[in-house]
Amino acid sequence: MGSETQPKLPVIDLSNENLKPGTEAWVLASKHVKYALEEYGCFEAVFHKVPLQLHNSIFSVVEDLFDLPIETKRQQTSERPYHSYFGQYSFLPLYESLGVDNPTTVEGAKGFTKIMWPAGNDHFCESAQSFSKLVAELDQMVTRMVFDIYGVERLYDSHMASTTYLLRCFKYREQKENETNVGLRPHKDKTFTSILHQSQVHGLQVRSKDGQWIEAEPSPSSFLVMAGDAFMAWSNDRVRSCDHQVIMKENKTRYSVGLFSFNSGILQVPEELTDDQHPLLYKPFDHFSFLRFDQTPEAKKSECPIKAYCGV
Ligand SMILES: O=C(O)CCC(=O)C(=O)O
Ligand SMILES: [Fe+2]
Fold this sequence. Notes:
Blueprint: E1 11-13, H1 24-39, E2 42-46, H2 52-66, H3 70-73, E3 86-89, E4 92-101, H4 106-116, H5 122-149, H6 156-161, E5 163-172, E6 182-188, E7 193-198, E8 204-207, E9 213-215, E10 222-227, H7 229-234, E11 243-247, E12 254-263, E13 266-267, E14 285-286, H8 287-293, H9 297-301, H10 305-310
Parallel strand pairs: 1-2
Antiparallel strand pairs: 2-10, 3-4, 4-5, 5-12, 6-11, 7-10, 7-12, 8-9, 8-11, 13-14
Helix pairs in contact: 1-5, 2-5, 4-5
Bound molecules: 2-oxoglutaric acid and fe (ii) ion (FE2).
């Protein structure tokens, strides 16, 4: 009998201070990032720049956030899809989430904090902003690596200038007897990138190309960097968007946080990514209009909403 090896996600250490564009280390890391995003649609980034103390404080304030009354949490509403409070669904009983728009800015962090705690909560505000700023640095590094390795570094600055961030916080309560252990059903994010960070409780799983579910291991220095549908379309299907789910096995409350990136303008496949072997697969599209389309019955019926929306 052969021994079964558990599939693992690619792990890439992006902590080194000397990891700078143009260096050999940068080129090597960029190749690993490209391979991981093309094969898995994701990888585990080791990123020690987020100190243990900040990891602890972000999960402590996220716990306080979900302890607020439901009526308070429902005060967070937004015109933008994915930016409001979600929870109390009979079909997804364990799940709750809240989003902080523009969390890397003082205004964004303060604006959200004021809605949740009208008398203020500096600890929440500062932790959410510091955490988001560091994870945004990771996002920018990875995005730059991808643009470099695909030979489209000329487009990086304008891409980043129109990127906006959303910090989503998640709580999955323990299941009661006879209740489902599904925290979140299989899905692909509609983001450009999503960077997920878990508390110590397992749950996040990623589907490999051959259909196996691979568990993402929680650790204070681990960040799961995933490509969303917008990234896949921008890359003309070189990058896969990552299929993932949350399954609760430990019977403990689970918290996680994710920094989601969106483009506030039009995304289009760079001409460098099309040729005879790679004909253009997507028309230019407005990212936020795609998010709205994704909520329509037409999108719900579709196997691949981004292709239904702007596929050639
Ligand atoms: O809780 C997690 O780790 C995953 C959340 C997620 O996949 C999402 O909100 O899209
Ligand atoms: Fe997701």
